[in-house]
Protein backbone atom coordinates (compact mmCIF):
# COMPACT_ATOMS: atom_id res chain seq x y z
CA UNK A 1 0.00 0.00 0.00
CA UNK A 2 1.29 3.45 -0.90
CA UNK A 3 -0.35 5.13 2.10
CA UNK A 4 0.03 3.29 5.40
CA UNK A 5 -2.78 2.75 7.91
CA UNK A 6 -2.67 4.09 11.45
CA UNK A 7 -3.25 1.70 14.36
CA UNK A 8 -6.98 2.50 14.68
CA UNK A 9 -7.59 1.95 10.96
CA UNK A 10 -5.66 -1.34 11.13
CA UNK A 11 -7.73 -2.44 14.15
CA UNK A 12 -11.00 -1.69 12.33
CA UNK A 13 -9.91 -3.57 9.22
CA UNK A 14 -8.80 -6.56 11.29
CA UNK A 15 -12.09 -6.59 13.23
CA UNK A 16 -14.20 -6.50 10.07
CA UNK A 17 -12.27 -9.40 8.57
CA UNK A 18 -12.54 -11.35 11.84
CA UNK A 19 -16.31 -10.90 12.16
CA UNK A 20 -16.89 -11.65 8.48
CA UNK A 21 -15.05 -14.97 8.81
CA UNK A 22 -15.99 -15.99 12.36
CA UNK A 23 -19.58 -14.73 12.71
CA UNK A 24 -20.97 -14.10 9.21
CA UNK A 25 -24.57 -14.01 10.51
CA UNK A 26 -23.76 -10.77 12.37
CA UNK A 27 -21.81 -9.15 9.55
CA UNK A 28 -21.58 -6.36 8.38
CA UNK A 29 -21.24 -4.46 11.68
CA UNK A 30 -23.06 -1.46 13.05
CA UNK A 31 -20.97 1.37 14.48
CA UNK A 32 -21.78 0.26 18.02
CA UNK A 33 -20.83 -3.36 17.33
CA UNK A 34 -17.64 -2.22 15.62
CA UNK A 35 -16.60 -0.04 18.60
CA UNK A 36 -17.22 -2.95 21.00
CA UNK A 37 -15.24 -5.34 18.80
CA UNK A 38 -12.32 -2.91 18.51
CA UNK A 39 -12.22 -2.60 22.31
CA UNK A 40 -12.36 -6.33 23.08
CA UNK A 41 -10.09 -7.41 25.92
CA UNK A 42 -9.20 -10.74 24.30
CA UNK A 43 -7.49 -11.43 20.98
CA UNK A 44 -6.33 -7.80 20.78
CA UNK A 45 -2.84 -6.38 21.22
CA UNK A 46 -2.75 -3.70 22.37
CA UNK A 47 -6.11 -3.45 24.11
CA UNK A 48 -7.73 -0.16 23.05
CA UNK A 49 -10.38 2.13 24.52
CA UNK A 50 -11.76 3.81 21.42
CA UNK A 51 -14.75 6.12 21.38
CA UNK A 52 -17.42 6.21 18.67
CA UNK A 53 -15.80 9.42 17.41
CA UNK A 54 -12.40 7.70 17.13
CA UNK A 55 -13.90 4.87 15.10
CA UNK A 56 -16.02 7.18 12.92
CA UNK A 57 -12.95 9.27 12.03
CA UNK A 58 -10.98 6.16 11.08
CA UNK A 59 -13.94 4.78 9.10
CA UNK A 60 -14.05 8.02 7.12
CA UNK A 61 -10.40 7.60 6.15
CA UNK A 62 -10.90 3.93 5.24
CA UNK A 63 -14.00 4.71 3.18
CA UNK A 64 -12.09 7.45 1.34
CA UNK A 65 -9.51 4.83 0.36
CA UNK A 66 -12.27 2.33 -0.48
CA UNK A 67 -11.04 -0.19 2.06
CA UNK A 68 -14.40 -0.06 3.88
CA UNK A 69 -17.94 0.29 2.53
CA UNK A 70 -20.92 1.79 4.34
CA UNK A 71 -24.05 -0.26 3.67
CA UNK A 72 -27.68 -0.29 4.77
CA UNK A 73 -29.21 -3.68 5.41
CA UNK A 74 -32.71 -4.36 4.15
CA UNK A 75 -35.29 -3.76 6.87
CA UNK A 76 -32.86 -1.89 9.11
CA UNK A 77 -32.32 1.82 9.57
CA UNK A 78 -28.87 1.34 11.10
CA UNK A 79 -25.86 1.90 8.86
CA UNK A 80 -23.37 -0.94 8.77
CA UNK A 81 -19.78 -1.36 7.63
CA UNK A 82 -17.93 -4.06 5.69
CA UNK A 83 -14.31 -4.42 4.64
CA UNK A 84 -13.13 -4.28 1.04
CA UNK A 85 -9.56 -5.51 1.31
CA UNK A 86 -10.14 -7.47 -1.89
CA UNK A 87 -9.62 -4.23 -3.82
CA UNK A 88 -5.90 -4.48 -3.03
CA UNK A 89 -5.42 -8.10 -4.04
CA UNK A 90 -7.40 -11.28 -4.44
CA UNK A 91 -6.42 -12.84 -1.13
CA UNK A 92 -7.26 -16.47 -0.39
CA UNK A 93 -9.19 -17.38 2.75
CA UNK A 94 -6.01 -18.58 4.46
CA UNK A 95 -4.21 -15.34 3.56
CA UNK A 96 -7.11 -13.29 4.93
CA UNK A 97 -7.01 -15.26 8.20
CA UNK A 98 -3.28 -14.63 8.64
CA UNK A 99 -3.63 -10.91 7.83
CA UNK A 100 -6.54 -10.67 10.26
CA UNK A 101 -4.50 -12.14 13.12
CA UNK A 102 -1.55 -9.85 12.38
CA UNK A 103 -3.77 -6.75 12.16
CA UNK A 104 -5.39 -7.58 15.50
CA UNK A 105 -2.36 -8.75 17.50
CA UNK A 106 0.79 -7.50 15.82
CA UNK A 107 3.93 -9.59 15.13
CA UNK A 108 3.59 -13.32 15.85
CA UNK A 109 5.36 -16.60 15.14
CA UNK A 110 3.96 -19.10 12.67
CA UNK A 111 2.93 -21.34 15.58
CA UNK A 112 1.06 -18.51 17.28
CA UNK A 113 -0.68 -17.66 14.02
CA UNK A 114 -1.79 -21.27 13.58
CA UNK A 115 -3.34 -21.30 17.07
CA UNK A 116 -4.91 -17.87 16.82
CA UNK A 117 -6.63 -18.42 13.47
CA UNK A 118 -8.51 -21.58 14.45
CA UNK A 119 -11.84 -19.72 14.64
CA UNK A 120 -11.32 -18.44 11.11
CA UNK A 121 -9.72 -21.36 9.27
CA UNK A 122 -8.03 -24.66 10.05
CA UNK A 123 -4.37 -25.05 9.12
CA UNK A 124 -3.67 -28.79 9.28
CA UNK A 125 0.03 -28.32 10.01
CA UNK A 126 2.60 -25.62 10.59
CA UNK A 127 4.03 -25.85 7.03
CA UNK A 128 0.62 -24.72 5.72
CA UNK A 129 0.92 -21.52 7.78
CA UNK A 130 4.48 -21.00 6.57
CA UNK A 131 3.40 -21.51 2.96
CA UNK A 132 0.70 -18.86 3.36
CA UNK A 133 3.17 -16.45 4.95
CA UNK A 134 5.58 -17.04 2.08
CA UNK A 135 2.82 -16.25 -0.43
CA UNK A 136 2.06 -12.97 1.36
CA UNK A 137 5.76 -12.08 1.41
CA UNK A 138 6.13 -12.78 -2.31
CA UNK A 139 2.72 -11.55 -3.48
CA UNK A 140 2.86 -9.81 -6.87
CA UNK A 141 0.98 -6.81 -5.44
CA UNK A 142 2.84 -6.91 -2.13
CA UNK A 143 4.72 -7.73 -0.09
CA UNK A 144 2.06 -7.66 2.63
CA UNK A 145 4.04 -9.50 5.31
CA UNK A 146 7.65 -9.31 6.47
CA UNK A 147 9.72 -11.65 8.61
CA UNK A 148 11.45 -10.10 11.63
CA UNK A 149 14.84 -11.08 12.97
CA UNK A 150 14.75 -13.30 16.03
CA UNK A 151 15.06 -11.52 19.34
CA UNK A 152 17.72 -12.65 21.81
CA UNK A 153 16.59 -15.86 23.47
CA UNK A 154 13.88 -16.56 20.88
CA UNK A 155 13.89 -19.77 18.84
CA UNK A 156 11.46 -18.65 16.13
CA UNK A 157 11.07 -15.67 13.84
CA UNK A 158 7.99 -13.50 14.11
CA UNK A 159 6.05 -12.07 11.18
CA UNK A 160 4.44 -8.64 10.83
CA UNK A 161 1.99 -7.13 8.35
CA UNK A 162 3.03 -4.14 6.23
CA UNK A 163 -0.22 -2.16 6.23
CA UNK A 164 1.22 0.14 8.93
CA UNK A 165 4.60 1.79 9.32
CA UNK A 166 6.95 -0.70 11.01
CA UNK A 167 7.43 -0.29 14.74
CA UNK A 168 11.16 -0.17 15.50
CA UNK A 169 10.55 -1.91 18.82
CA UNK A 170 9.36 -5.00 16.91
CA UNK A 171 12.86 -5.65 15.58
CA UNK A 172 14.58 -5.42 12.21
CA UNK A 173 13.54 -7.18 9.03
CA UNK A 174 15.11 -10.52 8.28
CA UNK A 175 16.51 -11.32 4.84
CA UNK A 176 13.78 -12.32 2.37
CA UNK A 177 14.97 -15.88 1.92
CA UNK A 178 12.38 -18.63 1.82
CA UNK A 179 10.91 -19.93 5.04
CA UNK A 180 11.99 -23.46 5.87
CA UNK A 181 9.48 -26.20 6.48
CA UNK A 182 10.21 -25.65 10.17
CA UNK A 183 12.34 -22.71 11.24
CA UNK A 184 13.51 -24.53 14.32
CA UNK A 185 14.02 -28.26 13.84
CA UNK A 186 13.23 -28.73 17.53
CA UNK A 187 9.99 -26.74 17.34
CA UNK A 188 6.98 -28.81 18.24
CA UNK A 189 3.89 -28.91 16.05
CA UNK A 190 1.53 -29.82 18.84
CA UNK A 191 -1.93 -28.56 19.65
CA UNK A 192 -2.72 -25.48 21.73
CA UNK A 193 -1.50 -25.42 25.32
CA UNK A 194 -3.44 -24.56 28.47
CA UNK A 195 -2.98 -20.80 28.03
CA UNK A 196 -4.20 -20.96 24.44
CA UNK A 197 -7.25 -23.03 25.45
CA UNK A 198 -8.12 -20.53 28.19
CA UNK A 199 -7.68 -17.67 25.74
CA UNK A 200 -9.95 -19.40 23.22
CA UNK A 201 -12.66 -19.81 25.89
CA UNK A 202 -12.38 -16.15 26.86
CA UNK A 203 -12.69 -15.16 23.21
CA UNK A 204 -15.78 -17.35 22.82
CA UNK A 205 -17.46 -15.77 25.86
CA UNK A 206 -16.73 -12.30 24.56
CA UNK A 207 -17.92 -13.28 21.10
CA UNK A 208 -21.22 -14.59 22.52
CA UNK A 209 -21.66 -11.37 24.49
CA UNK A 210 -21.20 -9.37 21.28
CA UNK A 211 -23.71 -11.56 19.44
CA UNK A 212 -26.22 -10.97 22.25
CA UNK A 213 -25.64 -7.22 22.03
CA UNK A 214 -26.12 -7.34 18.26
CA UNK A 215 -29.37 -9.28 18.64
CA UNK A 216 -30.59 -6.71 21.18
CA UNK A 217 -29.72 -3.92 18.76
CA UNK A 218 -31.60 -5.67 15.94
CA UNK A 219 -34.62 -6.17 18.20
CA UNK A 220 -34.68 -2.48 19.12
CA UNK A 221 -34.48 -1.59 15.42
CA UNK A 222 -37.41 -3.91 14.76
CA UNK A 223 -39.50 -2.39 17.56
CA UNK A 224 -38.92 1.12 16.22
CA UNK A 225 -41.00 0.18 13.17
CA UNK A 226 -44.09 0.05 15.41
CA UNK A 227 -43.54 3.34 17.22
- Rounded mean pLDDT score: 84
| Spatial order of strands in the largest sheet | 1-3-2
How far do the termini sit from each other? 47 Å
Shape: globular
Q: Give the helix tally.
A: 7
Notable characteristics:
three-stranded antiparallel sheet, 227 residues
General description of the model:
By secondary structure, the chain is mainly alpha-helical. It contains seven helices and six strands. The protein has helices at residues 7-22, 31-38, 52-64, 93-105, 110-116, 126-137, 194-224; strands at 29-30, 68-72, 79-83, 108-109, 145-147, 158-161. The chain has a three-stranded antiparallel sheet. A three-stranded antiparallel sheet has the order 4-6-5. A hairpin with a 6-residue loop joins strand 2 (68-72) and strand 3. The longest helix has 31 residues, at 194-224. Residues 181-191 have low confidence and may be disordered.
List the helices and strands and how they pair.
Elements: H1 7-22, E1 29-30, H2 31-38, H3 52-64, E2 68-72, E3 79-83, H4 93-105, E4 108-109, H5 110-116, H6 126-137, E5 145-147, E6 158-161, H7 194-224
Antiparallel strand pairs: 1-3, 2-3, 4-6, 5-6
In short:
By secondary structure, the chain is mostly helical. Helix content is 44%, strand content 9%. Strands 1-3-2 form a three-stranded antiparallel β-sheet.
